[in-house]
Every structure is written in C-alpha cells, then in structure tokens.
Amino acid sequence: MEAVEYFEVECPEKAGGDYYRRIADVVLLDHNLIRVIWKLHIFIDPRIPLFIATGVTRKLPGIVTLRDFSDVNRKERKVTISIGDEAYLAPLLQILWERFGKERVEQPDRFTIMLNIDEGESKDLEDLPVYDPSFSIYKDLIYALQVIQPEGFKVRRQYYGDGRFYLVASEDTLPENIEELVREKFLLMGESL
Amino acid sequence: MILVPVTYKGGIYRHDEIIDLIEDLGGYIIQKHMIAQEVVLQALVPRDDIDLIRRVGKPLTGELTSSPLVGTEIAVVTPSLEIHHLPHSSCDVAEYIRRFGAKTNMVGLARGFGKRIAQLNDEERDVINEHDLAVYLLGDFETCIEHKFPVLRRGIEVPIVLCGGPSTEVLKSIIDPPVDGYVGGVGRFMHRTKESEELSRMDDVVDEVTRVLDRRREEMAKDPLSISPARLMDILSEKVDEIHEVLSPTPITVQMEGLRVKLPYDSFANRIRKTEIDEGVTIGDLADVLPSRMRDYILVRIKPFSETNLMV
DSSP letters of A61-125? Predict the structure, then answer.
C-alpha cells in the first residue's frame, strides 16, 4: 500500500489487526481502489463488537462531458456524434433517449450517433454531462469496505461526500456516540469530518 | 492382509492393467478420475504388494504415492458461503485436504457468522455428524472464536479440528472442553495460498487431520468393523446395478465406518438391506441402513464386531 499516504489498522488484538491489515490491502488492490484512497484508518474491536473504517480519497477526475470523448458535426437539423471512447456510450444513449426520444436518436454503427434536432436543442450539446466517476467510485469503495469488515456485522451506517467516507458496522445496535468515535478516527489521520 | 491408502497417477494407456492388478491382489479402487490423458486412482492396496504395483506401473509412467486420507469423508465447516470466506480460505483448505485422498464436503452454515448471532441448526449438525471428521475454519479474532465456538460445536459427535487466525497455543487455551486438533494461523484471508509459508500451514492442517484420524483408526482397531467399508462398496457396486447410472463423481463414498450411497433412500434402502454378502449374511445384518440428511441419499453405518459377532 505504498500509494496510500496513511494506512493504519487499530485493534486490541495484535494478531487479528495484522491479519486485517493484509485483508484490507488485498481487497483494495483487487478492487483497483489503491489509487483512489489517500488516507485510511480502520478500527476493529471484536469485544464490543465494532468496525469503523474512515478515509479520505484523492482528488477524483471530474465529470465527463460529451466533448471529452467525441466530436459533434452539425448539418442543419442533422447532428452527427462520432464516439472516440466506447466506455461512455451506454450512459450517453440513455441521456439522449430521455432528452430527445428514441425516434429522433439513430445509431447506424457502434461509433456514430445521428440526431434529428433543431439548432436550439443542439446548442450546448458538447457540454452535456455524461458520466460522474465519483459516483461509482464511492459505491465501489463502500462495497470493498463491506468485504473487508468482519462478516455478520449487519447493522451498518455509511457516508461519503466531499472526499471523505466512513463505514461503521456492528452486529448489535450502534453505540449512541458513534459519530463522536468517527470524528476521533478522522482526527487521528489529521483530518476532520 | 493390511491395506494401505495410496494414489496412483499415470497415463490412460493400459491403465486397466493396473486396476486389474490392484483388484487381483485384493485391493480396492475407491475413486477413479480421468483427466485428459491422465488417470488418477485412489485405492487401498495390500502393504506387501506396493513394490509390485510400482514395478508394473513404471513402464506406463505410473507413480504411486501414499495418501493417508483415502477412504475418509471430511466436512469443511465455514461460517457462511459468502465472499468473506470464499474462495479463500475455505476452498484452499478443502482442496488441499482433497489432494491427500480425502473426500471433502464444504458445509456453509446458514447463520454461522458473527459473534453473538452465530447459530447451528439441526440439519447442519446432522450433516456434519455424518462425516468422519469436521474441520472448522473460523476467523482471526480470539474473542470471537472463544465466544461462538461453543455454539457451533453443540451436538457434534465427530472429531473436530479447529482452525483459526490466532496461534495454536492461544486456540488451545480458549477452547474448553478441548477438541481433537488445533491449527493456528489459518484464519480469514482473502488471497490465494501460494507462498511456501502459507502452504506449510496447509500441510499443518493435513498433518493434524491425519493425526486425529489415525488415533480414531487405532481406537477402531480394538473393536473392528464387521466388514471393511471398501469391500462393502465393491459388493454394492456389483449387486446394485443402478449405482452405475448415478452421475456424481463418487456414487458410493467410502467413509471410515460406513458408506454414503447416492441412491434415493425410499426406493433402495430395503433392497440394500437384503443384499447378500456371504452365504446367509445380508448387509442388514452387519450394518444400519439409514436415511442421510444430505439430499435423499442412504447412509450405511457398519456395526462393529462386538455387536454382530460376525466378521466377513
């Protein structure tokens, strides 16, 4: 985990903590999340039992617009979009169908979309936001943390936003001062929630 | 004649000669795998004839290795079948034990996870009790193991080998009453076991399982079974033709004290009971034919000599 600036596992049982350090390492590597995480602090106390994972992400890539992966050519009412990166094709089609209706969106081949729309509609087409990478990264992050946590901790609370995330889990009701505990863990990393 | 468990690995060409030889010498083929051009036989062979089989197998590029666990069925019990335990570590352990000849079944508990909430239901308990031994794969924290293990072992009568993250000494100190075997350092992990240190842990599991089963065999030798399970398997596959239509890899699974026959209980139990072994002696005289909790299979439990006063 060289890419992560701060990575600690806090656990009253030393052996268990060491195992979980390795587990977290492997899981984050398997899910391609090492590059996303900047700081990570995991706290496990099997006696309560309680699992807290807090962390800060690196600066995530911004929202992908239509301009970033395709060219737009206008010829009166006929607008042709040539796709450069197919990865965003599916979300783009969804957006176009919703906005213009399926009858006005044609796709003659994999890399071309033809629209039958008037000038007003096609004005700011290049700036159309297509995909927000942070959304799926947070989902992946929370999923990975659920894999890391000890199994059977079914009572969970999770949060993400503004580059910070946390997941707390237990098999009993969460303690009332849970937010305080989470804030403490953020302070250990030199961050605040 | 003392039979020892071995694995024969060799080419498919003329392998039937090896099978004939083992059978002629009075041994039994427990399982036969055909993998592409290779054949793997798990067999019980007479100890004095091992060299002969080696000699006959040599020109056929056959290799004979000792497999201490041939003829045993082992349950690998994990708290659940979720990504937290699968495929590592549960499958790694189950697969590794299988290499030494055992037939392993993975028993994923419905509600075995957690510390306070862990449970074992009656079906799981009965299924585990149908095996020769249960390997419990628990987690990394001694607090959890100490708390939940008494629940998971309730009603289990077969020997237990407990694996967990803490060291063997710690495991021994937290389990009361003691179980038959302990292996530390095999807890929850999420990567494949391929480093030599990890593989030696797997060897520890096999050694511990072998040690516990050897002790069980010694105990059984004091009051031997009325018929050897391998021989009973041979008789069944000869006299009950339908068994050859079963598609499972081991239609008859050999255990230390009996057999699991993968035929429906309702339609075959009586026929098996009445199957004659020797003049006037039927399987029903020497063994209990019981319904298994695993699907609708049949479990044949061979009675010891002291109960039947018969030895076939």
Answer: P--EEHHHHEEEEEETTEEEEEES-GGGHHHHHHHHHHHH-GGGEEEEETTEEEEE--HHHHTTG
